[in-house]
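Check out a protein:
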Amino acid sequence: MIKTIRTDASHQDFVKLVKLLDAELAVRDGKDHAFYDQFNKIDHIKYAVIAFENGIPISCGAIKEYDKRSMEVKRMYTVMNFRGKGIASVVLAELEKWAKELNYKRCILETGLKQPEAIKLYEKNGYLLIPNYGQYIGVSNSRCFEKTLK
């Protein structure tokens, strides 16, 4: 059974999962990894969700304020052998619920063309493609999405 908890970026299981994410992204992104990595530090993340199965951390995600009405979804990751089971959607839904409870109106995010599974996840969960924002403007590998919270 999947159980989620809300925490922050200092939780040791979140840190472990993010290290796995970073290792995978270093391979996927290749020479572009250093550019993306600079925007994905976790030391200022106050809102993180971890999913567990039988007490084992298997998935995570986080949100951080982008502006007064928007939370940015960050650090989404699911351990390889747990992918394709809807766990990332559970984590994402919990993050969206938390953002709404904090009175934010939308979630935004960036992902890369080299993460087609992530693009499918966000589209499946109602995220719409938007023009690249912030540091991702003009980055051809980046795809940005948003979802209005209801």
About this structure: Helices lie at 12-29, 33-37, 87-101, 116-124. The first strand starts at residue 2 and ends at 7. The mean pLDDT is 92.
